[in-house]
Design brief:
32% helix, alpha/beta, 6-stranded parallel beta sheet
């Protein structure tokens, strides 16, 4: 299985989280310069559409990119605090199919003060498609950063 991991703004995949993901497959974790590439989603699609990617996992800006990339690539997604409603850097959103033919799982932190969880829920409600299965888990004490144990549990449940 090939897992495409998309980090957040100015982030990277930490070794502890990579180890969790590697239990499920080969991890591909590109470095993404969201600030200087306003077409990051299209760039990711062009780079990985023919690489037999099975799932996309993303956090924050990577969750935003992963949401749309999962629809373009028709693969399942696991997204942590995805920046769906608003972002601090400009990103072009390509036209995508209404659903990805698979499940999109979203983990939201109720105490996230970087990506507003209410804005994310509103965005999902505004763009809800009956054909797109979306599972949302809201963690009341979770902030923006995803602790190791939360990541491990969510990834285990996803796979």
């Amino acid at each position: 299985m090939n897992i495409l991991y998309l980090h957040g703004l100015n982030g990277s995949l930490k070794p502890e989280k990579r180890n969790i993901l590697e239990a499920y497959g080969t991890v591909i974790a590109p470095s993404i310069d969201y600030q200087n590439n306003s077409n990051a989603i299209s760039w990711l699609y062009d780079s990985y559409a023919n690489k037999s990617i099975d799932v996309v996992i993303g956090s924050s800006m990577g969750g935003f990119a992963g949401f749309h990339l999962s629809k373009l690539m028709q693969i399942p997604a696991l997204l942590f605090n995805p920046a769906l409603a608003a972002r601090s850097v400009e990103q072009q959103t390509p036209i995508t199919p209404s659903n990805n033919g698979n499940n999109i799982s979203i983990v939201l932190g109720a105490k996230d003060n970087v990506v507003d969880p209410k804005g994310t829920l509103h965005y999902i409600g505004e763009h809800l498609n009956a054909e797109q299965p979306i599972a949302i888990k809201i963690l009341p004490l979770l902030e923006h950063r995803i602790p190791f144990d939360v990541f491990k549990e969510a990834v285990g449940g996803f796979f």
